[in-house]
Specification:
heterodimer, A: mainly alpha, Rna Polymerase Sigma Factor, Chain: A, globular, B: 248 residues, Phosphorylase Kinase, domain 1, 2 domains
Chain lengths: 169, 248
């Protein structure tokens, strides 16, 4: 058990990084990591030794996350209020406009696109690993990635376009 | 071979096979809008890594480091659920005029304290209902609900700070739980209930529920149970400090 413990512990910082980007909230993120670790310990026998533990943990986290989204959808009032308050808070706190835009913009992506984008761009999983982690075909990874990036680009360019329009006669 | 969208994505991620690089370079050179689009995707990658990369450098909270089974074994959680159901059953019985044996009851409430410890101490988000920042409110509220003036021990001198407290259902009414933690995030809970017979005082008693140790004692109007997944000696040290503070 101990060597598994070490192996899993080594992955925690990355799981936290991904969870933070995915949820946009420190507390939600650590909740997600905690739930993921508990599930991972319980299902460790399903991990094929020698295969990539990190990719497997992302699979576990994906499943936990999807379940949480479902239960959140079943009780929308509480979670929505909290997450939006949080968003407002952070928007007010930061003066790094570009970073804030990125943060806000990735929140506006559909969850399925955000997961793909973050696994590829932030966690630098290969497309194959991303497909396995999310249990989707690689073609779907590519199309979601493409849509996520383009949507993000438009979201972040939005205000700039507006400013330009005002200047041009 | 025409350049595909998937290849452009791979180009942005720097994973395009070398054999296709020249063609994609040529394509982008002759399509400036596409070149701008792919450059924007590369900037997105950099920004995402710049913004969230530091999260991986943050110290990992102790709660996440401990293997979950040490915090609460699944069967213990199951036991917790069963215990809560049993508590509900007991309340129902008592409303029907049944009064259980005192002797049996004495260790049963220590067990309930251990269960409450197991249920709430691993909580990341909602370990307590009212935080230590509102200590006065916490004490007033819980005193009112229990119908007895409570005091919250301050354990800072022995390394434990108050996290806060919550109200719980006990076997015959409300009970209070105060939570403490040390610098490493190790948590202890102090379970406080009212006594039916307020003349009784007992010495410290110790019970062990799996990993959770409980020191419990009755002190006239109130009964206390201190629970934690720590060495017995450490728990006794804290219990002694709690007792002294409550009986100066």
């Amino acid at each position: 058990m101990d060597d598994y413990g070490v192996l899993i512990e080594q992955q925690i910082p990355r799981l936290r990084r991904y969870a933070r980007a995915l949820t946009g909230d420190r507390v939600f993120a650590d909740d997600l990591v905690q739930d993921t670790l508990e599930r991972a310990w319980g299902k460790l026998h399903l991990w094929r030794r020698g295969s990539d533990l990190r990719a497997w943990l992302f699979t576990v986290m994906h499943n936990v996350y999807v379940n949480q989204l479902r239960s959140r959808a079943a009780h929308p009032a509480v979670s929505l209020d909290e997450s939006e308050l949080n968003l407002l808070d952070r928007a007010a706190q930061t003066d790094r406009l570009e970073i804030r835009d990125l943060d806000v913009a990735i929140r506006k992506l559909p969850d399925e696109q955000r997961e793909v984008l973050l696994l590829v761009a932030l966690e630098q999983l290969s497309y194959e690993e991303t497909a396995r982690a999310l249990g989707i075909p690689i073609g779907t990874v590519m199309s979601r990635l493409s849509r996520a990036r383009e949507r993000l680009r438009r979201l972040m360019d939005g205000p700039v376009d507006g400013a330009t329009l005002r200047v041009i006669k | 071979m025409p350049v595909t969208e998937a290849e452009l994505q791979a180009y942005a991620d720097g994973v395009l096979p070398d054999t296709r690089r020249a063609e994609v370079d040529a394509y982008l050179a002759s399509h400036p809008e596409e070149a701008e689009r792919i450059a924007a995707y590369r900037r997105q990658n950099e920004m995402l890594r710049a913004q969230f990369g530091p999260v991986a450098e943050e110290p990992v909270p102790d709660r996440l480091r401990r293997p979950p089974e040490r915090r609460a074994k699944p069967w213990l959680r199951m036991a917790a659920a069963v215990a809560w159901i049993t508590v509900g059953g007991l309340i129902g019985w008592q409303l029907n005029g049944y009064f259980g044996e005192q002797r049996l009851e004495a260790s049963a409430w220590a067990r309930r304290a251990a269960v409450a410890h197991v249920v709430y101490s691993p909580e990341v988000r909602h370990p307590v209902e009212v935080g230590a920042d509102q200590e006065a409110h916490l004490v007033n509220w819980l005193s009112k609900r229990l119908g007895a003036p409570l005091k919250v021990p301050h354990l800072g001198s022995i390394g434990y700070s108050l996290v806060g407290g919550r109200l719980l259902p006990g076997d015959r009414g409300p009970v209070a739980q105060f939570m403490y933690q040390d610098a490493k995030g190790q948590r202890l809970t102090l379970y406080v209930r009212t006594n039916p017979d307020d003349s009784r005082e007992t010495a410290f008693r110790f019970a062990q529920e799996n990993n959770v140790g409980v020191f419990y004692w009755l002190d006239r109007k109130l009964g206390y149970a201190l629970s934690g997944e720590v060495e017995k000696a450490e728990l006794l040290r804290v219990a002694t400090t709690v007792y002294r503070q409550l009986n100066p």
